Amino acid sequence: MSKAITIAQAQRYDAHTINDIGIPSMVLMERAALATFNNLLNDDYDLTRVVVVAATGNNGGDGIAVARLLKIRGINVSIYLLGNPDKASEQTQQQLKIARYYQIPFTTELNDVINATTIIDAIFGVGLSREVTGDFAAAINAINATDASTVAIDVPSGINADTGATLGVAVVADSTTTMAYNKIGLLTVNGKHHAGTVHIADIGVYAQDHVESIK
Ligand SMILES: NC(=O)C1=CN([C@@H]2O[C@H](COP(=O)(O)OP(=O)(O)OC[C@H]3O[C@@H](n4cnc5c(N)ncnc54)[C@H](O)[C@@H]3O)[C@@H](O)[C@H]2O)[C@@H](O)CC1
Ligand SMILES: [K+]
């Protein structure tokens, strides 16, 4: 799994897996969350106070699922949510509902982000489509100003996964768990600087179906 893909390929492979093969989107999200969670534990981050900074796309849903996996382990975790939850993607709305069931605290204080020992960046992934401004930019600036370790999900938020360019402002992560394949933008100088150590997670999304190997 050493190849790197574009945003369009990532979106096409995801859609094929969900719509043609029939693996539900939530299953992929759970696998993405579990892979991120396992890397978080294996890399030995200080999990004394974890804050997941999530927006309302599917990247945010991955992060909210990670918060639940941490909470079930007894780890002190809270969620800083950006954007309007009523407009969240279907999967992310479901993850928010599950997070409420598990009574994961939501914080609106950037200070809680600043005082975290480890931050999970689940703001934007391959769906980033424009310059980052407003509350999103303020959160990313706060993440970058702390001493906390930062773990990005799929793509460091604010980085264009095709070009590696910073769209306004972007998270500087210690590590990034990226889904299915590396992204070509993360191989650029700027992309590498923002992604840190890249872990590639097998979530069941492939460029080829491998049907021949199971005959
Ligand atoms: N499609 C799938 O089934 C899977 C998706 N996964 C995750 O989902 C991500 C892609 O999810 P999405 O396609 O929902 O995209 P994202 O969650 O990356 O972001 C899209 C959302 O952000 C908004 N947005 C884009 N740029 C913005 C900006 N500059 N300021 C404010 N809002 C902005 C868009 O309007 C949209 O609501 C992947 O990177 C990955 O983390 C994984 O869960 C695996 C499976
Ligand atoms: K991210």
TrEMBL record:
Per the entry, the cofactor note is: Binds 1 potassium ion per subunit.
Q: Boundaries of each YjeF N-terminal domain copy?
A: 10-211
Keywords associated with the record = Isomerase, Metal-binding, NAD, NADP, Nucleotide-binding, Potassium
Residues noted as binding (6S)-NADPHX in the record, renumbered to the chain? N58, N59, G60, G61, D62, G125, V126, G127, L128, S129, R130, E131, D154
Protein's UniProt keywords contain Metal-binding: yes
Query: Which cofactors does this gene product need?
Result: K(+)
The UniProt transmembrane annotation reads none
Asked whether the UniProt record includes Nucleotide-binding among its keywords, one would answer yes
| Enzyme Commission code | 5.1.99.6
Known catalytic reactions? (6R)-NADHX = (6S)-NADHX; (6R)-NADPHX = (6S)-NADPHX
Task: Please give the InterPro entries that the UniProt record associates with this protein.
Answer: YjeF_N_dom, YjeF_N_dom_sf, YJEFN_prot_NAXE-like
Q: What Gene Ontology terms describe what this protein does at the molecular function level?
A: metal ion binding; NAD(P)HX epimerase activity; nucleotide binding
User: What does UniProt give as the signal peptide span?
Assistant: none
Listed binding positions for K(+) are N59, D121, S157
The source's domain of life comes to: Bacteria
Role, per record: Catalyzes the epimerization of the S- and R-forms of NAD(P)HX, a damaged form of NAD(P)H that is a result of enzymatic or heat-dependent hydration. This is a prerequisite for the S-specific NAD(P)H-hydrate dehydratase to allow the repair of both epimers of NAD(P)HX.
Output the NCBIfam families linked to this UniProt entry. yjeF_nterm (TIGR00197)
Its family remark reads: Belongs to the NnrE/AIBP family.
Protein name per Swiss-Prot or TrEMBL: NAD(P)H-hydrate epimerase
Taxonomic classification = Bacteria, Bacillati, Bacillota, Bacilli, Lactobacillales
